[in-house]
Design a protein that fits this description.
This protein is an alpha+beta fold and 118 residues long. It is built from one helix and eight strands; from the N terminus they run E-E-E-E-E-E-E-E-H.
Length: 118
Amino acid sequence: MRLNGEERRRYPRSRRAVSAVIDHGSPGVLNHVDNISANGVMCHTVKPVPLMTKVGIAFDLNKDKRIECEGIVVRCEPDEKGDDHFKVAILYTNIDEADRRAISTFVDRDAKQSALDD
């Protein structure tokens, strides 16, 4: 979200696709990841996930780096497309600091590549 043209988020986000698994005890809910940051992830699910639900997250930043962490659902909204899917925002609650730095590096590289592509 922007305020007077300024980014209010503490951590920038990457929209590059990553393979992820979100586990909250109900299989098959993850549709795809929308964006990722060093603070959390936004994904689309086929079912709503209640706020404050604890989840396990595993995703591959690249072929050599797998991140496994825990988070909580801080937002769950119907997708604007009206296709009965939901946008779910997850805030990391337990993540190794080295993994957080790896995500930051991933996002920074993605931003630099996007700037070159423009």
